[in-house]
Amino acid sequence: MHDDIKTLRKLAVIYYRMANNEDNYENIRLHRAVNDLRQIRPVVLIDELPWHEMGIGDELKLVCQDPWLQRFEWFFRSQIYKKRHMPADMIMQPYLPVQRVIHTKDLGLEVSESILATDNESSIVSHDYKDILSTEEDLEKIKDPVVIYDHEKTMKNYEKIGDILGDIIPVKLTGIPYLGVVTWDDIARYRGVTNLLIDLAERPEFMHMIVRKLTDAKISYMEQIEALGLFDNDPYPLHCTPIHTSQLPSGDYMGERITLKDIWGRGTAQIFASVSKQMHYEFDIEYMKETIGRCGLSYYGCCEPLDKKIDILEKLPNLRKISITPWADVRAAAEGINTKYVLSSKPNPATVSESILDKDNLRKEIKAILSACKEHGCSCDIVLKDISTCHRRPENIFEWEKTVMELIKCF
Question: Which helix (H) or strand (E) holds 163?
């Protein structure tokens, strides 16, 4: 234990020096300006890394023996690593976050699947889902979740790590940073993609029954979290994108319990890349109004192309940010988004998967994004994410960061 503590204290000193400096606070200012639709310049982030391919020497090697302390060691090591090698506009929390211990009794559903992996070290695998919600009788399996906050264990953890590191870095209890709603991603796992898409066309009433029950369960969950005071108003980040804004918490927040109107909501329906605009609205956006639509601001989209669906997204209350993927027409998206929302661009992660980074092709991709945003006055963040591989050459990602930041700073 003595050696573990010694390791953590050394890492905490390095981390806090990086986090508690002017560059970090300037990045917060840049993030906030983008999300407030008063962009100073576009911001760039890198997330969802293939960590099993990223090791350089001992920088990411965990040496703590205590599994609980290893969590904090990984937090320090991974953040220090990113800051040293691919910082872009990342923000480092100027404190050590200690997550509140929250247990959720699930919906009563258990995914049935077969998995195929090509790389046993990677978390990216292929899934073959079995249908567990094929009949109306099956819908009776769906139960409202039950949220349990373990205050005693939370405080024990907080005090334990505070005793170890509190004289070096502020230690802060953190909660749930935003409301994430991915109903159709969940249905795809419960039913399989083919069954889901066929039944949208052939059994629409049944599909409405499924999404209704899951939406009601999510409403129960979010209301329990709100009642328990477990939402957070100082989070980092919003599923890989900047989250800071001067508009949250809400104007009538008095420093007490954080409510839904004080946080971001984030929704997506990735499988709906394959459905019409009308179906997308009917089966997802209408239901999202009841969940993320109750939040102070909302961010919609992930990997589904939304360039031709901006008008239906505008039906979401307090919409502020829209994800634009490599499979979308960024110019068409920028025209629809204009100055009304943030264009959250996701460049193609396959760029860094080659043996050598093609910088000319990368510059072409990023210049197209920046040109479209400049032409239409869009506030913009650019996020490299979903990186399943870097060809076991982390330098590809480091070079991606340097190349993109050179373009951004000339914007």
Answer: helix 151-165
Q: pTM value? A: 0.95
Q: What are the beta bridge partners of residue 116?
A: 126
Render pLDDT for 34-69 as a digit per residue (tens, 0 to 9): 999 999 999 999 999 999 999 767 899 999 999 999
Q: Which two tokens stand for residue 252?
A: 């009538």
Compute the radius of gyration of the chain from its Cα atoms: 22
Residues 346, 350, 356, 360, CA torsion sign? negative
Burial of 230 (0-12, 13-18, 19+ CB in 10 A): middle
The dihedral sign for the CA sequence 380, 383, 386, 387: positive
Region 392-399: mean pLDDT is 96
Alpha-carbon distances of 52 from 60, 120, 125, 283, 389, rounded to whole Å = 10, 10, 14, 38, 9
Separation CA 238–CA 104 (nearest Å): 21
What is the per-residue pLDDT across 175-191, written as a single tens digit (0 to 9) for each?
A: 999 999 999 999 999 99
Into how many domains does the chain fold?
1
Amino acid 138 reads D
Range of the domain at 98: 2-408
CATH number of the domain that 100 lies in?
A: 3.20.20.210
